[in-house]
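Dear all,

This email documents one entry for the complex benchmark we are building for the journal club exercise. For each entry we list the sequence lines for every component of the assembly. Then comes the predicted three-dimensional structure of the complex as a token string, followed by one or two observations. Please use this as the template for your own entries, and keep the labels exactly as they appear.
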Amino acid sequence: MLEDKNQERTSLAELGEFGLINHLTKHFKMYHSSTVKGVGDDAAVISASDKETVITTDLLVEGVHFDLSYMPLKHLGYKAVMVNLSDVYAMNADAEQITVSIAVSNRFPLEAIEELYAGIQLACDTYKVDLVGGDTTSSTKGILISITAIGKANKEDIVYRNGAKATDLIVVSGDLGGAYLGLQVLEREKQVFQVNPQNQPDLDKYTYIIERQLKPEARKDIPKLLEELEVKPTSMIDISDGLSSEIMHICTQSKTGCKIYEDKLPLDPQVISTSEEFNMDSTMIALSGGEDYELLFTVSIDDYDKIKGNPNLTVIGHITEENEGMNLVTRANQEIELKAQGWNSFNKE
Amino acid sequence: MLEDKNQERTSLAELGEFGLINHLTKHFKMYHSSTVKGVGDDAAVISASDKETVITTDLLVEGVHFDLSYMPLKHLGYKAVMVNLSDVYAMNADAEQITVSIAVSNRFPLEAIEELYAGIQLACDTYKVDLVGGDTTSSTKGILISITAIGKANKEDIVYRNGAKATDLIVVSGDLGGAYLGLQVLEREKQVFQVNPQNQPDLDKYTYIIERQLKPEARKDIPKLLEELEVKPTSMIDISDGLSSEIMHICTQSKTGCKIYEDKLPLDPQVISTSEEFNMDSTMIALSGGEDYELLFTVSIDDYDKIKGNPNLTVIGHITEENEGMNLVTRANQEIELKAQGWNSFNKE
């Protein structure tokens, strides 16, 4: 798409850095009275508050975290915001502001960066988050996006990774493995396209898992739901690197073990059918496939009645004493030690 | 340096992302009781406060903002923090926390990243700032550093860019142009080295300006000094892109003009002598050379007695009505319109 010579193209050098920031951010709405000053000064200003501030940041690099040959820039902008908001919601906090920095090579025309920001703006509008600052610079290669999200929560509501206790139930929102399988489908179509550019792929039966990869949604609704259910998790984390890796973070920081039950893992029918098509084990995908941006948390067993049967939540196991280890209980009732096969970007090159 | 085969080298892939973050951040001290939770959860947590929060972020890209052939990694880490703290001080606020994200190609061994973090740690210790989060990922080319700084100030103390009024005095801390000329010296030495690697450069007479380039200091002392002098600036900005560009930001946002007096510009003797050596005009360098990280601010003329004679501060002109334009008054008493020749990274490639 970016190589299409008929597109209208405005060079980034024409606008310069200040012009570019103004141009890209001038139509963003501000939703929070806490945003005293947004883009346009040395720093943004956020009003004083009797709530705690949570801050998180993530960096996405072209060729490492995303491939523009199947990731439209608007989706990339949206997803980059989701990745960060997900971390705020995983603290049981609400996100209020973001800053966005991009480094982009001159091969991208202004119109491409506008697409990226259209996705960022859609995310801000959908999730009611204010863009308050950032930086825009050139890169020597490709695009890189660095986002910082700022949220608020009452001190007593914040949930860390280290509060799980033996007998606590392990709960996950939504379903698992879809984003990873969506990526496999897109990678396969890319290879088909390279061999035969005239091929028209029929992706209808993969709609859900492709959307999980290209347009994930952060679970803003879960902290709200938990408040309504009057449940405060004992620990929480978002699933960006795969269930195994995340539950191991909770157990390590809480000094506990865990048992996860294979037959309880929530899988969408498209995940099951596509796993079979790719000759992959759907349990492995649920455990190790990343980028689902669901929330994983633990609750006291006393709260079971409050969460059971909720369509958004699935109990997948329970916390154990540390010396019992971290294990998967298979359908055949065998215990297998969990391994973190989360994604390591340094192995990618 | 990075190509030295005798150095001890540990590959980043061995450690992985989690291992790397832990390894790099475990020796950082926390200075602020406001830092409730630093590195190690989905987000950092900063305690509630009756002060406003200021947030700023900057992105530094290898090959665009710095050249590792003369910028040691430790200095790079230090400078990357300074760039951000400078923006916080320019709000008349104090910096308390930073997050640091880096993207780095596998060609860098762990020991190189440790050097970078040693510089970040030195900056944190010197400026009493807490590292509370970040992200570490691989890049397909070179190093990129994205830092976000978080500061605090009383609501009534915050100084924006838009408060300057006609007759206000224009004041600058320190001296100007050194960082730019330091860069010219380093660029020249790099070219000499490429022709003759055995040449031993004598850089003694450039010590000050090279240090201004390689190890700038953010002016944490100026907000404190102003408080002691009982002066609240009417507007303030830090000088990262050159005096012209910065005073134009103040005037544009304040809807004013200005007069800057050439004979008042504070220049170090090394700036004057090195300008002559390079056949460059020292006034142009003071106006357009970036990266000095001094503070530029305006004060009411009623505050003149409080600041005059202070060795840290120089009055370089005054604010005028908007219709008088933004001008430099030369030594020959001619008025020349100021032009923003600040640095534009998109013109660099």
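Observations: Chain A has ten helices and 13 strands. Chain A touches chain B through 78 residues (CB under 8 Å).
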